[in-house]
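Board notes (copied after class):
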Amino acid sequence: MPNARDLELNEAGWWSHWTDVRWVGANAYILLSSSFEEYFFNRAGFVDCRGSREAIPKIEADFEAAGQPPCFSVKEKCKEAANALVSRGYTAFDGMAVMQLGRPRFRTAAGLTVLSGQDISAADWAAAYSLSFYDDFRTRDSVSLIAERLRKEPSVTLVAGMKEGKVAGILAAFRTRGLLGVYCIGTLNKYRMMGVAGSLIHEAKKMASAEGRELILQTIVSDEVEDYYLRGGFRRLYLKQLMRRESSALSLQGKRRV
């Protein structure tokens, strides 16, 4: 199993390209976004359990200063942090499964051309992201600016599957020490259930193997796609609880769609 700290740093590193990241000590981080309302882009996490309990009041103060309801992701083994949050009125409302790919068994799409890197325009990738996750173009402009920056990042490879001359699905691969994390796996509605996401994951696995990296991802439990990943060759490494206060008005828009 990859080191849990390395897994968490991969996630924090990826979303740092999408949000403002504030570190509380060496082990706790806060994601805050002015472009995206969903809790997924506005939450705190811990790369290590050490000191997590002590960091909670500071994290809450930063959320309050930003006008955002506090939201935490806490690994199962971080019992002290979870208990401290419960004592402060938090409950678990969802989970995030951290997964690793072994031998891929995903169905692939016939007639799909996979493009990566500079062969993909930031605008096309962003449009496919917005349609895959929101069924409209509400996030296209914001994501296009992010994708343009990501195309210049050596640690990132944007991937798209083309069918009938149009982008059918996307993912992004992000490199940190020993790991290739895959994120933003989405398929446009008319191309779902055809093997598009499977084709893109196969491509990412080839990339990871060629570079000597383990391929990982994190998926929200309520998105109900973990079984899809399990059937395709992933295994769950551990679960993180997503915790909030009952009165929090967190935005839940933007489901992951494969």
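Comment from the instructor: The longest helix spans residues 196-211. The chain has a mean pLDDT of 94.
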